[in-house]
Amino acid sequence: MSPETQYNKHKLVPWFMPGPDTDPLAEFDLAAEFGADLASAPTDERVYRVALQLYEPTRVSDVAKRADCVPDTARRHLTCLVEIGVIEQISDSPATYRRNESYFEWRKRSRLEQLSSSQLQERLTELTTHEQEFREQYSAERPDDVDALEHADYNQAEDVWMDLSEWETVRCRIRRLESSR
């Protein structure tokens, strides 16, 4: 039994790991997941959902407050999440934790390894086409070369920034796919 399965004993499969029928390219929608009704979720799930949002070192008491549990319970679940690599403990006194980004990168790469070479190539073709569209739209080689205010009125600059963010995400996915091939 894997550590992830052992951690979530009330279900024999880890609720946060993709199943065999899950699309390996589907991205986590962490905001939607976190916004789900935490009150009805088991404590381990609530702590896990909070842990997904720990981009900065966060104290156990803050995790407990956000997960609506007592600090000792949060600490116990955080320790399990450290053991399986989802988060990392940053300090001991006071105990602080944050997401282990290398774990999430590993998960993304592992999901890509499940795809056939033709599926990888098809996805890579879609992404490179999308990136080329951005290059043509903004007459630039990379998102960093674009000044949003040159491409939109002040009140429409946010749309350009959203495009640039998406373009950067596309570039990141291309790099990940290329390294998986």
Descriptive report:
The protein folds into 2 domains: 3-103, Arc Repressor Mutant, subunit A, CATH 1.10.10.10; 116-180, no CATH class. It is built from 9 helices and 3 strands; from the N terminus they run αααβααββαααα. It is extended. It starts with a helix and ends with a helix. Strands 1-3-2 form a 3-stranded antiparallel β-sheet. It is mainly alpha-helical and 181 residues long. The chain has helices at residues 3-7, 30-35, 43-51, 60-67, 71-83, 101-113, 117-138, 148-151, 157-180; strands spanning 58-59, 87-92, 95-99. A hairpin with a 2-residue loop joins strand 2 and strand 3 (95-99).
Annotate the secondary structure layout:
Layout: H1 3-7, H2 30-35, H3 43-51, E1 58-59, H4 60-67, H5 71-83, E2 87-92, E3 95-99, H6 101-113, H7 117-138, H8 148-151, H9 157-180
Helix pairs in contact: 3-4, 3-5, 4-5, 7-9
Tags for this model:
disordered N terminus; mainly alpha; 181 residues
Distance between the termini: 30 Å
- Total beta strand runs: 3
CATH homologous superfamily placement of the largest domain: Winged helix-like DNA-binding domain superfamily/Winged helix DNA-binding domain
Q: CATH topology of the largest domain, which one?
A: Arc Repressor Mutant, subunit A
* Total domain modules: 2
**What is the CATH class of the largest domain?**
Mainly Alpha
Q: Which strands sit side by side, in order, in the main sheet?
A: 1-3-2
Note the main sheet.
3 strands, antiparallel
H and E order: HHHEHHEEHHHH
CATH architecture of the largest domain: Orthogonal Bundle
Strand residue content: 5-15%
Rg over CA atoms: 20 Å
Averaging pLDDT over every residue, what do you get?
Answer: 80
User: What global shape is seen?
Assistant: extended
- How helical, in percent, are the residues? 55-70%
Structural class: mainly alpha
Number of separate helices? 9
